[in-house]
């Protein structure tokens, strides 16, 4: 199982709306994530807009490719893109995993 952590930056003026959108993630988006192998997926948001994402998957490249092939992901990413700073493209394309340097199981 791969553990993946990534960072993005939400625009400060859009923080509350971003939180609200994630209180009601589309059921078809949730289903697509599950079918694509995303497990134990969490987003953490700091007051200054720093977004930390964490997930577990068997194969991150395959999980990303499976999501990229869904229509619901394209629609979700298009709606979410304006929430982020310094993003060139879609949020899912801007996810750059961090190197894991320690893990306590």
The largest sheet, given as strand count, sense and whether it forms a barrel, is:
3 strands, antiparallel
The quaternary organization reads as single chain
> What is the element string, with H for helices and E for strands?
EHHEEHHH
Report the uncertain regions. Answer: none
Structural class: alpha+beta
Shape: globular
Widest sheet, order of strands:
1-3-2
Distance between the termini: 13 Å
Task: Output the number of helix runs.
Answer: 5
| Rg | 14 Å
Q: Which terms summarize this structure?
A:
alpha+beta, 3-stranded antiparallel β-sheet, 39% helix
Question: How do the strands and helices of this protein lay out in sequence?
Answer:
Layout: E1 2-9, H1 15-23, H2 27-35, E2 39-45, E3 50-57, H3 60-68, H4 71-80, H5 91-94
Antiparallel strand pairs: 1-3, 2-3
Task: Please characterize this protein's 3D structure.
The chain is an alpha+beta fold and 105 residues long. Strands 1-3-2 form a 3-stranded antiparallel sheet, with no helix packed on it. It starts with a strand and ends in an 11-residue tail after the last helix. It contains 5 helices and 3 strands. The mean pLDDT is 93.
